[in-house]
Structure formats: structure tokens, C-alpha cells
Amino acid sequence: MNLPLPGPATTFSLTLLVCAAAPTAAHAMAGAAATARAPFEVKAVGTFKSPWAMAFLPDGNMLVTQKEGSMILFNPGTGAKRTLSGTPAVSSSGQGALMDVVPAPDFAASKLLYFSYSEPGRGAGSRVVLATATLDQAAGALRDTKVIFRAQDASTGGHYSGRIAFSPDGKHLFFTSGDRQLLNPAQDPKSTLGKVLRLDLDGTPAAGNPLAARGFHAAVWSYGHRNLLGIAFDRQGRLWEMEMGPRHGDEINLIKPALNYGWPRASNGSHYDGRDIPDHAPGDGFEAPKVSWNPAISPGGLAYYDANLFPQWRNSLFITGLSGQSLDRIALDGENATKAEHWDMGERIRAVRTGPDGALWLLEDGGRGRLLMLTPKK
């Protein structure tokens, strides 16, 4: 969890910066005023219990995961909901959750889903896992659920990460595995924690991963990461990743094979107890972020946008803020990324996705988190 403390005067209020605090009425009003000036209209489409992630299906339905372990089949047109049977047991205390869900590249034929969750372990321990299941939509069920990858290390900490992205050719799967608040495993070649992993579609390490010959776990693509809460490819096939920093230092990285992104040896944030962490600096041997935040926004989700409904936003990343209660647009230009626009949404925002028609969809955090659809202002 990112718990930023009050810092210098900024555009964020103290209320915005307290991650655990419930939004105040004043802040909600400020958010409404801010979005009223935005180039989009906001429509609430549904309400969910601590929603975590969403995915669109070819028939227009959606899947929404909820923290405690349920997966909801949702029709955004009618508002009809159905809780799918067959989901596995989830360790949902703390930061644990039923996390990401992404249809397979051949979902139209296979009906296969990939999803991640925090799997209960011995005692209070748990680990992030990647699983597959076949969606039986008529029966409202997941069939043949199978865990295809488990992080090696069980922990009682958070920072599961568990985000999924398929390579543009659909042949490989990239999976984020957080440091579980253990720090040093992010630099440990043998550990899968604090890493971006490149897997075959069956969950085994992909051939040709660049660090295997140097003694790393065969699945590792990049390392030195903290809590990787978003991953997406752009139109040129570049892989972008967003992660939550410690006390400040949230960041967006351009992921390249075999690179070390520094955690916990370098960060633009500090430890929660105030101890300094060296900032990223030229020549330090670590890949620096393309964008970072200080004060923190506590990012929850990331999406790449290249649709036509908002033509001015093409080739952008969208980042949601939990403590920031915000939506940020990051403009991309080749390997460069620049903060472009910031909107105060008045609520903690957990997730963002681009819809099939080019609308931008958000999930609010919390026990009555709304699903929001953003469309151009008329």
C-alpha cells in the first residue's frame, strides 16, 4: 500500500494524499467540479463490491473481478449481473484479491480466460498465481480451472501485482510479480518476485528469455520492480509498466528485456520510516522511469488508448490514482512519455480499460465501487 505523507504545497489536497481515508463530501464535490471541466461525460453503469479489474467480451458483456474472490458476468446495457461459479479460493485479507482477468487471444473460439489471484498458503502466507479457466457463459460458470504459474515465495505481505498482458502476436504472456514487501527478492536472480515474467501460454517460461543464461529464473524478462499494477503494449509493440512506489516515487517504465529497474536500490521515493533511497541517476546501472510522481498518486491501474472516439488521446497511457483519486493521461512519443492531463475524479479509482467502442471505463475502489463510462462531451 502506498501511504504518502503531506509534502510541499501541490495541486493535491491533504485529503487526496491519505490513501486509507474515505473521500469527504467536499472532495467529492471538488471532483465533480473538476470533471465538469473535462472533455468527457461520466456515466455510472453499475456498482460492485470492492471491484479490482474488468475485461470486455466479444458479445458486449463484461467480466468484473471483486476483491473477496468473485467474478461477475455483467451486461453494461441492461445492468444484469451474474456471479460465476467455479472461482478458486482466494486469500483476500490485506492487499489480497481476485485480481486481473484477460480473455485469451483466441477467446472467441476457445472461451479461455487468464486470471490472477492471491492463493492461500500455509498459515498466514499466500502467493500470487496465474490461472486459466473456460468460461461457460450459458451456465454462468468457470470450467476446468487450472493454476499454470505460482510465484516461488509465499509471504504475509502485500504487493502481489498479478497483471497480465499478451504479446502483440498472441504467442506469449507477460505477467507481473510484485516484491511482496520483501524488497531484496526484486534483485535476487533466483526469485520470481519483483519481476516482469515472460511465459508461454501454458505458463511455462518462454524460450529465449534474456537472463536465463546469467543464472536467473528462466521466466524473468526484467527485474528490480516493486508493485507492478499495470502493464500494456503500445501500437509499436513497446511494453509499458506502471508501479506503485514506496513513500512517493510512483513510476511508469518502458520495459526492455534484461534491464534492472533498481528497486530497492534506487527509487524516486523514500522508505515509509523516512530513510532515504538513492534517486535514479545517470550511470547508476539502473533503468530510470519515464515518468514519476512525488507526491504519490498511489496508482491502481493502467490502460493504453489508441481508439478513435477520443482522437486527441490516441497513443496515450491512462493511469488511475487511489490516494490521488484521479485519472492521468500520459502522452507517448516513441520511447518518451510525458504527463499530459490530470483529472480529479473525487473517488479512489482502482482500474481503467479501453472499451470496444473507444469509451474509457473506470472502476472505483471500495464496497460500493461504481463502473464509470467516459465518453466525449457533447
Describe this structure in words.
It is a single chain. By secondary structure, this protein is mainly β. It has a single domain, classed as TolB, C-terminal domain (Neuraminidase, 6 Propeller). It contains three helices and 24 strands. The protein starts with 13 loop residues before the first helix and ends with a strand. The N terminus is likely disordered.
Task: Please describe the topology of this protein.
Blueprint: H1 14-17, H2 25-36, E1 40-48, E2 51-56, E3 62-66, E4 71-74, E5 81-83, E6 98-103, H3 107-110, E7 112-120, E8 126-136, E9 141-150, E10 161-166, E11 172-177, E12 195-200, E13 220-223, E14 227-233, E15 239-244, E16 250-255, E17 291-293, E18 299-305, E19 316-321, E20 326-333, E21 336-344, E22 349-354, E23 360-364, E24 369-376
Antiparallel strand pairs: 1-24, 2-3, 3-4, 4-5, 6-7, 7-8, 8-9, 10-11, 11-12, 12-13, 14-15, 15-16, 16-17, 18-19, 19-20, 20-21, 22-23, 23-24
